């Protein structure tokens, strides 16, 4: 799947922000690549469904881990 052909620059930025925040929420600096892959897949799936807000992309990614984190806005 080519992410570049499916999403505009703003969406890719939102996805990157959500990925970084989710990995931070999971304290993923040293976790297996599998966890990061799950995070990335969840964010891409949500974006493919039309979600563009990095906070909501982050929330969707955390659902894979059954976590509920207090929403803190992502600064772009």
Describe, in plain words, how this protein is organized in 3D.
By secondary structure, the protein is mainly α. It has one domain (3-63). The protein has helices at residues 3-6, 9-25, 33-48, 54-63. The protein contains four helices and no strands. The mean pLDDT is 81. The protein starts with a helix and ends in a 13-residue tail after the last helix.
Q: Let me know the average pLDDT.
A: 81
The strand count comes to 0
| Helix/strand order | HHHH
Count of domain modules? 1
Describe what is shown at a glance:
With 76 residues, the protein is mainly alpha-helical.
Write the layout of secondary structure elements.
Blueprint: H1 3-6, H2 9-25, H3 33-48, H4 54-63
Helix pairs in contact: 2-3, 2-4, 3-4
Structure keywords:
76 residues, mainly alpha, 4 helices, 0% strand
């Amino acid at each position: 799947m080519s992410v570049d052909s499916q999403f505009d620059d703003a969406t890719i930025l939102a996805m990157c922000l959500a990925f970084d925040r989710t990995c931070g929420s999971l304290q993923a600096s040293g976790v297996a690549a599998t966890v990061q892959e799950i995070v990335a897949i969840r964010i891409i799936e949500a974006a493919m469904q039309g979600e563009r807000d990095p906070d909501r992309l982050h929330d969707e990614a955390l659902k894979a881990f059954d976590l509920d984190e207090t929403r803190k806005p992502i600064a772009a």
